[in-house]
Amino acid sequence: EKPYVEGLLPTEWYKRFEKEGRCPGVKCMWTMHHIKYISQYPAYTVYLKAPHSMTLASNFREPGLHYAKPSSGPDHELVKDWSPFIASFPEEPLKLGWNGKLT
What we know:
This protein is mostly helical. The protein has helices at residues 9-20, 30-40.
């Protein structure tokens, strides 16, 4: 089954990549499969807004799907010290739709 989620721009990108011969395969968008899965089995992705723009996961910008040149390093510094703040979630967290707007 194709990982299409109609009405989303990434679906259009994926279809274009198929025409170019990039999908399926290693030069394809793995994120489209994540989007498709989440659209079928509702779940959420948690984003941490740590102090000083630190993060739990970073894009190291290595050559591949989005970058052709050697890495210029991570896009954000990783959190180095654990804090209870990281694991504290509000009773009702903010939820965004595919369009980035509050649901």
